[in-house]
Every structure is written in C-alpha cells, then in structure tokens.
Design brief:
439 residues, globular, mainly alpha
Length: 439
C-alpha cells in the first residue's frame, strides 16, 4: 500500500521540522553569549566566571529533568503514530505535573544543593560569592524552566516546531532585552542577569500553555484515570529513569569540565565559559535535526515500520552533518571576532584564542552523537542510551586522568572531544538492535 502524506518522509518534511528548531535553539546560546557579553563589559574576569559557573550549576540541576523533554517526545510521537489521541493528551498532563513538582523541590532544597555544588568546585571566593547571588535569584523560575521541557517535547512530537520557534524567540528575546536594561541600564550586575531570566522563563511557560490550549479545551488531559494509569505511568517512568541516568552522566561531564577549569584560575575559567558558548551554538543547532529524528523515528516506531525508521535516520543525519560542516567553517573564520564581542578582558581574549581550534572541529566530531541521540530517543530505547553513556563517561574520565595532569586545559578539551566520539561509536553499535525492535 502506498504511503499516505502523513507517513511519507522527504527532505522537505525533515527541514519543515528541523529549521524552526534550529532557529529557536540558536537563540538559546545567543542568550548565553549575551549574558556573558553584558557581564563582560565590566572588564573583569570574576563576574564572567560567576555567571558561567552559576548558570552551569543551575542548568545541571534542571537538565537532570531533561528526560522530561526526551521521554515526552518519544512516547508522544509513538502514541500519535498509533492514533491514540487520549494518551497524547494524558502525556502532556503527566509532563506538566512532573515538571512543576520537580521545580518546587529544587526551590525547597536550594540551600543544600548549592552547598553541595560549591563543595566540589574550586572556584575563588570572589567567583563563588557572585555565583551564589546569581543562583539565589534565578532558582525561583525552576518550576517554569523544567515544565517547559515537557511542553516543548510534546509540541515537537506533533511536528509543531513553529510554535516552539515562537516560544523560544519570545522567551530569549525578552531575556536579552531585560539583560541590557537591568545590567547596563540599571547596573544590577549578576543579579540583574538572574532576574531577567526569571521573568523570561515564567512568561515562556505561560505562552507554552497557550500553544497547548486546544488540548485543554477537551477533557482527555484531565481524565485522571488515564493520566495515572499504572501501566502507562510505569512505562513513562521507566523510560524517564533511564534517560535521567544518562542525563546525569552527561551533565557530570560538562560540570566536571567547568570545575576542573576553575581549578586552573579565574582567567582560564572565564575563557572556557566564553568558548562553551561556541559549543552551545553547535549543540543547539545540531539538536534541531536530532529533534526531527525524535519525532519521525518515534512515529515510524509507533507504526512498526523499520524501513521508514531507517529513512528518517539517514535523511536527518545527512542534514545534520551538512550543518556541522557549515558551523565549523564559521567558527574557523569568525571565532576570534566572536570572542572579542563576548568579552573586553584582554587576558580572557588571549586565553580563549589558545583553545579555539578545539571548538572549530567539535561540531563535525560530535554530529554523529547528536543524531544517534535523537534516533534512540524517538524509539524510546532509553536503556541503550543509559548504558552507552555510562561507557562513554568512563572513557571521558580515563582521558581526563591521563591527559589533564600532562596537558592542563588542553587535556580537558581533548577529553571532551573523545567523549563525543565514544558516544557515537557505542550508540552506533546498538543501532541494528533498534531496527529489529521496530519490525
């Protein structure tokens, strides 16, 4: 039987999903660059490092619940592929309950969480003090920030990526405007950056709910028997628990990278923070194509169509690699200019240029890992993701132990590159089993 329009996979359909996500995700690291750049106009290394390490710590706590977006995409796409509209609505309600609840817990435990984070961080007293000021303000948007993972995942699963684009542009555009006003206009420093984020994230949450208004006009979203159905709740939590472990391991890599960089001095910490903006730009752009894989692979998996699944994986991966090459070229040509725009500190500029070549090659090196993540999320093969991330984390730790004592910050960047390669190789080895499961 010929494929229907809803099932047909073409380059245009991949781009229809991916390009709004690429554009929306691009605003997130731009926001990070603006945060860093606004603080960088103070001409001091400590405030840059404080905003950087404070944002990394809070993002680590939030992204522990990143399973909410990934799990929601895979499960919702599969339910949509099976034509189960009731379960599609129930999944949104479950995601909102988990997200809002998790945010409240983080606010309640903020004292203990911040204490634990800084016990493993060797940052200077000045950087730690400023970072604590930033985090104490920004943490109050935790429920909105985490619940937005679920809303975004639910919209992506239904290929409503234009709504995601509008949501991100609104939220990050407001954040940038408030950054400029609060910091440069009112002189509120790191606390101004944090307050701008609070207002932007809560407004983004409200807009996300508005985009889901068609579901709330029906009754399925509050059919509590279906929402709390034991079997489906167990399946959701099983997928989410595996992705949680995977997310913790991935965050451990990035947080340990920042902390070990902090141990080499405030200037190195600030330089790494500047360069991480390049990595975030590449990551969010590649995630746009990975999200396409999540939606398309999830629907193919729900329809039990391995041929369609393979075509989705190949189409998305080809476009992802093309984007990675373009970003690598852009970083090679304009990397120094971008560094200078982000910070006015001569010391930080000089240090950042030393390590810039690692960021030039990182998009191409990391592309396969991002694409395979999207493929495995869509198929809800969360156990494979967990196990392969554990292996990759072990490789990263081994590289750090061997390279960092000898090469210093160069060793940290090399270990980061190797971790991307390990993720691609280990997940790639499990891909044939994924296709067999879809048959």
């Amino acid at each position: 039987m010929a494929e229907s329009n809803a099932e047909r996979l073409t380059h245009s359909r991949v781009l229809h999903i991916a390009l709004p996500i690429v554009l929306s995700n691009a605003t997130v690291p731009i926001l990070g660059a603006v945060d860093t750049g606004v603080i960088g106009q103070m001409g001091l290394a400590a405030p840059i490092g404080a905003v950087g390490i404070g944002a990394v710590i809070l993002s680590a706590f939030y992204w522990v619940f990143g399973f909410l977006r990934m799990g929601t995409v895979g499960l919702t796409a599969q339910a949509d592929g099976q034509g189960d509209a009731g379960e599609v609505a129930a999944l949104l309600t479950r995601a909102l309950l988990i997200g809002l609840g998790a945010g409240v817990v983080i606010i309640a435990l903020q004292g203990a969480l911040f204490w634990a984070a800084f016990r493993v961080s060797p940052a200077s007293a000045e950087v730690e003090g400023l970072a604590r000021q930033y985090m104490a303000v920004r943490v109050w948007s935790a429920p909105a920030a985490i619940a937005l993972y679920g809303i975004t995942g639910w919209l992506i699963a239904q290929e409503r990526t234009r709504a995601v684009l509008v949501l991100q542009v609104w939220m990050n555009g407001l954040n940038v405007a408030l950054d400029l006003w609060f910091v440069l206009g009112l002189g509120w420093g790191v606390q101004g950056v944090a307050l701008a984020t609070i207002l932007a994230e809560w407004s983004g949450f409200a807009l996300g709910l508005w985009f889901c208004r068609a579901v709330f006009a029906q009754t399925a979203w509050r059919a509590w028997g279906a929402v709390f159905d034991a079997a489906r709740w167990r399946r959701m939590m099983g997928v989410n628990n595996d992705i949680l472990v995977r997310s913790l391991l991935l965050e451990a890599i990035f947080v340990s990278f920042m902390f070990m960089g902090a141990g080499q001095g405030d200037v190195t910490l600030a330089a790494n923070q500047v360069l991480l903006q390049f990595l975030m730009i590449a990551s969010y752009a590649l995630d746009g194509f990975a999200f396409s894989a999540e939606a398309l692979v999830g629907k193919a998996f729900g329809r039990r169509n391995p041929a369609q699944l393979r075509r989705a994986a190949l189409l998305v991966s080809g476009w992802g690699m093309a984007a990675a090459v373009l970003m690598a070229l852009a970083f090679a040509v304009a990397g120094g200019v971008i560094v200078d725009l982000i910070t006015t500190s001569v010391e930080v500029r000089t240090q950042a240029r030393v390590y810039l070549p690692y960021l030039v090659i990182m998009p191409v090196i990391g592309c396969a890992a991002f694409m395979l993540d999207g493929i495995f999320v869509g198929a809800t093969r969360s156990r494979d993701m967990r196990n392969m991330m554990a292996l990759s984390s072990g490789v990263y730790v081994a590289c750090v132990l061997v390279l960092a004592p000898v090469l210093g910050n160069h060793g940290l960047w090399l270990a980061m590159l190797v971790s991307f390669i390990a993720r691609a190789l280990t997940l790639g080895a499990r891909y044939p089993a994924l296709e067999r499961a879809a048959a």
